[in-house]
Each structure stands twice: as structure tokens, then as C-alpha cells.
Specification:
Length: about 325
Amino acid sequence: MADTGKTGILLINLGTPEATDYRSMRRYLKQFLSDKRVVESSGPIWWLVLNGIILRKRPKTSGRAYDLIWNRELDESPLKTVTRSQADALAKMFEGKANVVVDWAMRYGKPSIDDVLQRLTDQGCDRILLFPLYPQYSGATTGTAMDNVFDVLKTMRHQPAIRSVAPYYDHPAHIKTLADSIRAHHATLEWEPEVTIASLHGLPVDFVKKGDPYQDQCEATVAKLREELGFPDWKLLLTYQSRSGRTEWLTPDTEETAIGLAHDGIKNLTIIAPGFATDCIETLEELHIRAVDAFLKAGGQNCSVIPCLNDSTDSINMLKTLIDSNLHGWV
């Protein structure tokens, strides 16, 4: 008897608020900051801090940041725009295979993992390949996305078979695509970059001490990227961004490093974010605006942020390569 089931491919990204107003931001931040994978604090004191302080103040400041980079045409965050475009482009790559369905979801916000998993199974997908779009693994990103998937599966009487794409921090196709994007961007500049910062999202040091492999994988990504580009260590620097609160976070910090480089006489700087598959608030506001401004105010002359791989042809081909390697026996 022929197999009539379908295979679903589910791209998973971090998440996005539905709008930049106070209520929308508060709803999004509450879901995000209530995740024990993201903030391990618990108990009545944390509840009071979260609901009495953070969720009173941060929706306004975060809303202003999102407002600077909001996609006005579609009235949504760029993260949602690009993730949808990545899924659409990959769907076109599988147009010749009627038994493959490509979809996308957000860990926080909409479309939710819950809804999209149900949608895929309703379409007849009895096998689903999960693709968390995080090159480096952390419990606070890939881990919580997978937790969400398994929570949904626990409610299903007829569960689909599940596979997941492994972290691709050192995959040759990913490293080459990143290196090519740096070369291509540098070729468009009218000045010669002296140093490039590879800015990865930060993580509390305590998470790493407890066994999270994120730091090791970030270091491996940058080491492979230096090798591919032929750069010495000083020409491609690893830094971490987006730290918050009083907890000790991974260092060195991106903005502090940019300021230090300017003080040391570096005039021309580029920044890349090799831990982000799509441009988002952390790249478009934190790097394109804040980090660039910090470098220039500290005495730098030129600073440019290299776009994430996004939905470029090279990016989609790379994602397709990773997907194909995980579909053996299914498609």
C-alpha cells in the first residue's frame, strides 16, 4: 500500500509582538519573560518584580524600540515579515513534491506553534521536521521551542512522527554563506573595514555553568568563520549583545567593544550577527542604530551592519541543504 501521508516542515523563530502599543508589548513580554527557560527565577518575589516593575515599564521602552524598525506597509515586525518570506521561498523549492508542506511559527506571539502544528496535522502531515532557526543551541531558544512542541504533542491522540534539524553553528554551508555575505557587503562599501565584530546574543553566565552549550557553539561559529575568511583573531571579534538585569552575562559586550575600538583608533568597522537567521529588533535597532551610534560618537568614522542572511537566495539554498539532509527516508 502506497504511503499517502504528508511531510510537514516547520520553521520556528523566536517571536514578535502584534503591535507596538503598550498592551500588545505587555502581552508579548509577559509570555516571553514568564518562560522558565528564559528567566529561571520563580516564586512570589519574582512575580512581584515581573508584574509590579518590569511589565509596567518595559512595554513602553520596548514599544519605542520596535516602533523604530516596524514594517509599516504590512503592520508587523520585520522578524515576522522575513520568516514568512523564508517559508514561502522554501515552499517554492518543494513545489514539485505534493506531499511536502512548509509552514512557520513563533515561540512567542502569532502564529503560535500550537496553532501551526495543528494546521499541519489537519493537512495530513503524519511526519513533521522541526527547524528552529537558531544556528547555536541554547535552552532559552531552541530548548524552549522544542518544549512547546512537545507540550502540544502531549495533547494529541494521533501524534505525527517528529524530527528536528540539529544546531548548524559549524555546518560548512552555513559558514560559507555567512562568509560570502561578509565579502559581498564589504565589496559595496566605499571604505575598507579594519575590524569586523561578530555579535552574538548574550546569555547569563549561570546558564553556561549549568551545562548550556551556547558559548562553545558561538566560539566555534566565529572560529570557523575566521578560517573561511582568512581573518586573524583581531580582525573578526566575538562579542555578545542584549544583556539585561543584574545577572552576570557573557562578555565582551558588543557596544563596549565598539566604543573601545574607536578609542583605540579604529575608524572603519563592520558588524555581523551570525546567531540570527533573520533581522529582528536585536539587529535592526540594537546594532544598526545603537551600536553604530555608539561607535561613531566614540570617534569612529564609518560603521556598517551586515544584514542577516534573511530570505536571500544563498540563505534559502543553505536552509534547503540543511532540510534535505534531514528528510532521508521521508521524502
